[in-house]
Write a structure and sequence with these properties.
Elements: E1 5-14, E2 34-42, E3 50-56, H1 61-69, H2 72-75, H3 80-85, H4 87-96, H5 98-101, H6 108-129, H7 133-139, H8 142-147, H9 160-170, H10 174-184, E4 186-194, H11 200-212, E5 217-221, H12 226-240, E6 245-249, H13 256-265, E7 271-275, H14 283-293, E8 297-300, H15 307-315, E9 321-322, H16 331-345, H17 358-372, E10 382-384, E11 398-399, E12 402-403, H18 417-423, H19 429-438
Parallel strand pairs: 4-5, 4-10, 5-6, 6-7, 7-8, 8-9
Antiparallel strand pairs: 1-2, 2-3, 4-12, 11-12
Helix pairs in contact: 1-6, 4-6, 7-17, 9-16, 10-17, 11-12, 13-14, 15-16
Length: 440
Amino acid sequence: MTARITALDTFDIRFPTSRELDGSDAMNPDPDYSAAYVVVRTDAADGLEGHGFTFTIGRGNEVQVAAINALREHVLGREVAALCADPGTLNRDLIGDSQLRWLGPEKGVMHMAIGAVVNAVWDLAAKRAGKPLWAFLADAEPDWLVSQVDFRYLTDALTPAEAEELLRAGRRGRTEREALLRERGYPAYTTSPGWLGYSDEKLSRLARQALADGFTQIKLKVGADLEDDIRRCRVARQVIGPDIRMAVDANQRWSVAEAIEWTKALAEFDPYWIEEPTSPDDVLGHAAVRRAVAPVKVATGEHVQNRIVFKQLLQAGAIDVLQLDSARVGGVNENLAILLLAAKFGVPVCPHAGGVGLCELVQHLSMFDYLALSATTENRVIEYVDHLHEHFVTPVALARGHYLAPTAPGFSAQMHPRSLDTYRYPDGVFWAADALTEGR
């Protein structure tokens, strides 16, 4: 009997991170880190499932779950083997639903829902192949990888032929690089010391811990109050010394003029990059900031909504660092396009992570990029935040400031059943008890 997809189950998962100000920044002062979580089930004898999610910060997560549910009929009944052999077919079908496409197109809640479902299928495909996703992708033939990319709207910047050549060139020396990756891991930086709601004492303590843990870059949230930012940057720089990189992140707080003025005011602390200095949709604004604040680098990407905006940022010379997100765009397929664009333009990729499970996912994309495309980790780091990893079956592992290469098959997306039961909103164990407490 041909195995088929039999269910697409969704969960509204929320964690009360706002209570300790974990994740707080100038634009998002009280986030409750959340996941619109999806499980793709089949009737195959192997019993394997595909797990995926997209990240939100609390209110509205139910809207994101509803968007995933709207995609269910596109998934149910598909032949498992055919789907896993060519996830691009589902990606194109989901993006191509003409009525749902009106809600984007290819951006916002609907596009993030597509990413969650597509990523779950890649998780299933890698599990069926018995490989972690980074190896599943790195082992794939260049022409197959190119077939997974939607080149519509891209060919003025990157053609399929150019993409295949980049992938063929990127494979050279792969064996030696994989040995290094398995031994040493992939470089990381940490945002854990830098949340805006933390006291100077906590910032200092966590910055010292970051040094002890082997990190060579930290990041601070900025943008709410300039004098406060100057004080916090001074505290951090005194702790880490002159040789450790310190990035700063405004989380879209400023206009273009404010971004230039504020970044120049922080320049004495030698920030490595200014992240999200203005609206993620303002391509020309980022270009203006970049020209004005050099040699401070400009980085953005966690809220860039699709490959087309990334293309424009690169074409306009608007960014020094590209920060793709594993769950903001349409899943692995679109992130392959973004990695290829970055390689074509020679811009390093330093992914956004943290949140719920974003570290677990994006490590695979960076490791694939290193092995099969960019062939380097120079000036490349993956963000790391020490939150919520315990809820995942195969959480990230770090040593000496590096992500260690995952060994378990899949995309590292699967959460423990008890975590789903506890933090399901609003009727999970934690939230039900919390409601009773609030009602007293």
